Each structure stands twice: as C-alpha cells, then as structure tokens.
Amino acid sequence: MQLGIVGLGKMGGNMRTRLRNAGHEVIGYDRDPNLSDVDSLEALVKGLEGPRAVWIMVPSGDATRDTVHALGELLSEGDILIDGGNSRFTDDLVHAEHLAPKGIGYVDAGVSGGVWGLENGYALMVGGSDEDVSRLMPIFEALKPEGEYGFVHAGGVGAGHYAKMVHNGIEYGMMHAYAEGYELLAASEHVTDVPAVIKSWREGTVIRSWLLDLLDNALREDPELADITGYSSDSGEGRWTVEEAIRLAVPLHVISASLFARFESRQDDSPAMKAVSALRNQFGGHAVQSKK
After folding, report:
1. Domain closes at, from 108, 136, 155
2. How many helices and strands in the chain, by DSSP H and E?
C-alpha cells in the first residue's frame, strides 16, 4: 500500500522505515531536506496514486492545524488524512468537519512506542469511520507489534487521541510511583545497591513493566542519576486528562498528583513551601532556613 508521511522526526522517520521493511511504498516529507524524499507537500501528494492516504507526524497545535489545512487544499475526494501526533481530541472533530465537505476522510491515531517502535512496533489507538479504518488496516498491521495486542479501533473521530490522552495520564502516574520508590530506596540507610534492587524487580514481581525496564537502563548508564536535573516538562496530555476528569467528575488522585509534581520540579525554590515554612515559624516558632 502507498502512504505519505509528513514529519520525519524520531517517530515519523522510524515509522517510514518500519513500513518500508514490511513492503509498503512510503513517500516522506520533512522541512529538513536531509530527511525528506520530496521537496514539498505538493510533490508528496503528486507522488501518490488516488485514493491517497497521508499520515501527519508533526507537533500538536498550530503545526498540525496548518498541515491539515495545507493538505486539505491538495488532497481530493476519497483521500484520507491521518493525524498520528499528540493532538487534543477536540481538534480532531474540527479537522474532520473542515475536510468533510471536500470528501476527504479523517482518522486520528494515538501512537505509543517512542524510539523503540521501529524494532518493537507501535501501539495504535485509532478513531474514525469503519470504512476509513478498514481501508488503512494494512498500514496499521505493519506498524503495530506482532501478535494479538497493540491495536484498537477505539471509536469515531477523536476516540483515538482520547484513548492516547488517558494512556499518557496513566503513564504519568506509573512513572511517578517508580520515581518515588527510587527516591525512598536512595534515602534509606539499609539499602546499599539501589540499581540492583530496581533490576531485581524486572522479573517475577507484580510491578514489572517496560517503564521499570527503562528505569533500570537509566540507572545502568548513570547509577546515581548525577548527570541530569530533576526538571520534568509535560507535553499536554496529562493536563488534558485532568481537565476531562474535572468535566466528567471522575476522581484522578494519582494522575493529578503526578502532573502537579512535574510543575513542582520546575521551581528552584517552591513559593508554596516557603509559605509553609513561614507559617510554621509564625505559629510554632519553628526555625526557618535563611538564604543569607
């Protein structure tokens, strides 16, 4: 099957390779000419036979919106546009509505797998019509991991990115639980080899996971994590997950706390904790540490 891919970064470029390895014909476009197969979106569309399928792998927000609109002017009735980036699910509904009058189908695909996806496959959470998803199944089958799991047609347009949003919210909570456990082990006077404890958990325990494997990898490279800072950014999905929880009145204690912990990581000196320290000093005479 033919496919166009727009955006050939770490994931998009590896997806192109995985699809080609599976025998599909892929034409890729990227603003970096060293990565691109063609020199423009126009050339990418012209290089595909109709009905076309084009997969977007660019940052969410304005970059995705601009690309959707640009391709909307180039594609034809019967073509399908797939957004595989980390777009908010509400954007999918807007994009599908924009393309529908032109007869262009729209599918949203939440993609998980990171830089390991080339070898292991990508978990795909897809939203769109039965007809559009069915037509794209050869592509999805090539990208997903081998075996029974790793793909779901989650529902209509928006469902794929909604599922990926919740997936990433869960990821926030799992990562933070491992991080807190690591910190407690490192603070203990009883445990003398923290990396060895983490490594031992990789088999036979109920908390084993790929994330735990990756923490073990990180500790093997830097046993005390001395070469990195604690600053942790967020790409948006955690915030959107918490916003949806508020809208639907669903309690998300762990995911919300893990998101707020990321915010805290960006503070050199927490204003909230400074206020706590000042209050303890005021009501109880507890000592405060001065910066002087």
Report:
1. 155
2. 13, 7
Show the domain range for 78: 2-155
Examine the domain organization and report whether 17 and 145 are in the same domain: yes
Q: What is the DSSP secondary-structure string of 156-173?
A: STTHHHHHHHHHHHHHHH
Last residue of a domain, one of 124, 155, 186: 155
**Which residue among the candidates 164, 189, 203, 221 is catalytic per the annotation?**
164
Q: What is the pLDDT along the chain (292 residues), one digit of tens a residue?
A: 999 999 999 899 999 999 999 999 999 999 999 999 999 999 999 999 989 999 999 999 999 999 999 999 999 999 999 999 999 999 999 999 999 999 999 999 999 998 889 999 999 999 999 999 999 999 999 999 999 999 999 999 999 999 999 999 999 999 999 999 999 999 999 999 999 999 999 999 999 999 999 999 999 999 988 888 888 888 789 999 999 999 999 999 999 999 998 888 888 877 777 777 877 777 777 777 776 6
Examine the residue annotation and report whether 10 is marked as an active-site residue of this protein.
no
The single residue of 46, 141, 171, 224 carrying the catalytic annotation is 171
Of the candidates 135, 148, 81, 134, the residue with the CA atom closest to the CA atom of residue 109: 81
The domain total for the chain is 2
Q: Please indicate, yes or no, if residue 275 is contained in any of the structural domains.
A: no
Burial class (CB in 10 A: 0-12, 13-18, 19+), 125: buried
**Residue 164 a catalytic site member:** yes
